[in-house]
Each structure stands twice: as structure tokens, then as C-alpha cells.
Amino acid sequence: MKLNMQHLNWTGRVLLASMFLISGIGRSVRHKLFVSGSGVQNQPKVVHQLPVIQIGGLAAFAMIAFAANSLLARLALAETEIDPASFSAIRLVSGAVFISLFALVRFGTALPKQGSWLSGLALFAYAAAFSYGYVQLHTGTGALILFGSVQISMLVYGFATGNRLNVTQWLGFIVAFIAVAYLVSPGAVAPDASGATIMMLAGIAWAIYTIRGVGGDPVLMSAGNFARTVPMCLILCLLGWPYAEFDAQGALFALCSGVLSSGFGYVVWYQVLPHVSVVNAATIQLSVPAIAAGMGILFLSEPVSLRLAVSTTGILLGIAVVLRGGDVSLRRRQSTES
User: Are 257 and 69 in contact (CB under 8 A)?
Assistant: First the structure.
């Protein structure tokens, strides 16, 4: 199957826009990513609270990068001949190389000791399931299922570890949950059941990876986790060898996904995580489906169903309610303490 060059041109525009975003955000966090602790390996990590506007800017960039992952995966797996295993392997290995070079610039080492095999396994499971799920799902639908399950998984974890929701936040969570349930419920325009199930598993794996993303330097942790996925990618490629289909354009999309959307995007997201609660981290990520759906409509001319529109609206409304409820609780605690 030949790739429509219009898609490639649109993707080029997305990547160009990403580079401008990287440049702008890079200037605002230069001290955090390069100057602070530069050249000192294994320096104890001291988390300094970033300005709210900077946290918001970093989080917004990370969400755009996550949405771009969905777009690039759908472009590669629907418009080229590349197979899901090859796409996953190229994405993760290129991400590992990029972040290792990033760590080399900052710390003088390309073999960081941070990260863990469990986090690496969660990252690999997410990326593999993500690729196989997008064989059968549209861009926005896949992102909605993915981050819907991410939110549910992280909120369950937050509740189990004592991060209680107030009444307003519960209302927002219920609205978002009903919206996700409506999207995947049986019907004439319901998404493919097997693709939806695989994408839900990807969401659970990503939730685990996100939850474990606190407690170290974001560059070193990301580099260590990505490096640990390389042997797993080799096993995946060996198992999928009989079905392997290499496509140069598909490989290019996987490379862009690994370096820009995943490599740089995950480093930025790990920079945000120490400054937000588990509940807010889960809820912020539910903005990704709306961004991804917009990208799919704009760049791939994907159809907009009433079900997708209603579900996206419900999820975004739930996000706003949960975040608003958290702000109200914080102000009440601060007024009580003062």
C-alpha cells in the first residue's frame, strides 16, 4: 500500500510545529534540564516547585506529544505496510538512543543507572499493545480508550493509597467514566472489541509507568527505562518475524514517534509528575483524546461520530470538574492552616 503524500506533508507540518514547541519550552526549562547538576552523575535529586505556568506549559507540550503518538501510529499502521511489532521496536529503540544521548549531554553518561525493569516492562507492554490496538482503531477513538483506562487505573491507585476524592471530584470522575463506557458500549458505531480491549491493556500499562515516574531525575529515569525495553523489543521481533513487514515510510513514522513524541515527550512528562498529584496527573492526560481526535480529523480526514463527540465532551467536562474540585480543596486547606 502506498502512502498518500498529502499525509506525509501534513505529518511534516506536525513535526515542524513540534520542533518549535520543543525550542520554546526548552528555553524555559534550560536550567532544569541542562544547567542544574550538569556533568554530575547520580547527584541527589532535589525537587524544586516550578511556577504554575511552567508546569502547565510542560504538561500541555507532553499531552500534544502523546496525541502525536496516536497520529503517527495510525498513519504508519493504516497507511503503510509496516507491522505492529516492527513499529513498536523502532519506536522504543529510537527513543532509547535519543534519551541516552540526551543523558550523555547532561550527565556525561549514556548508561544511566536510574529506572527499573518493572518500569521498562510497563513501558514495553504499553507500546506493544498501543501499536496492535491502532491496527483496528481510529486515532481519536484509540486515544480516548487508552487514556480513559489510564485515568481509571490511576484514580483507583490513588484512592487505594489514600489520595481521596472530594464530592466534586467524584462527580467529575463519574462523568468521565460514563463517557468512556458510552464510547466502548456495543452499537453500530462502537469500536472494534478486540482493538478496544488491547488498547485498554495499553492504558493500564501506561498508568503503571506513570505512577512509577516519581523519585528520580526525569532524564535518567526515562533513559534507563527505555534502555531496558531493547531486549524486550528483540524478543517481540523474533516472535513476530513470520508476520514482519518492513516499510520505509512506516519506519520513518515510528522513528519520529520514538524520538520526538516518545523520547522528548516522556522526559517532559516525567519533569511534570513530581509537581502534580496522582489524581491530577490522571485527569490531565484525558485531554489527549480530544487533541488526538482533532489531529485525526484534520490530518487523516477521519469521520466524526456523535458517539465520539459526546464521549469527548463528557471526558473533558470530567477533567474540568476534577481539577476544579482539587483547586477548591487546596484553597480550603490553605485557609484552614493560615
Answer: yes
15 vs 226: which has the higher pLDDT: 226
For residues 222-251, average pLDDT: 92
Residue 21 lies in a domain: no
State the pLDDT at residue 88. Answer: 96
Cell matching residue 136: 483496528
The range of the structural domain enclosing residue 76 comes to 52-331
The structural domain count of the chain equals 1
- Does a structural domain hold residue 263? yes
Distance of alpha carbon 302 from alpha carbon 297, whole angstroms: 5
In 3D space, the residue among 263, 237, 226 whose CA is nearest the CA of residue 18 turns out to be 263
Of the segments 140-149, 257-266, 325-334, which one has the largest average pLDDT value? Answer: 257-266
Q: Is residue 13 part of a domain?
A: no
| Domain contains 37 | no
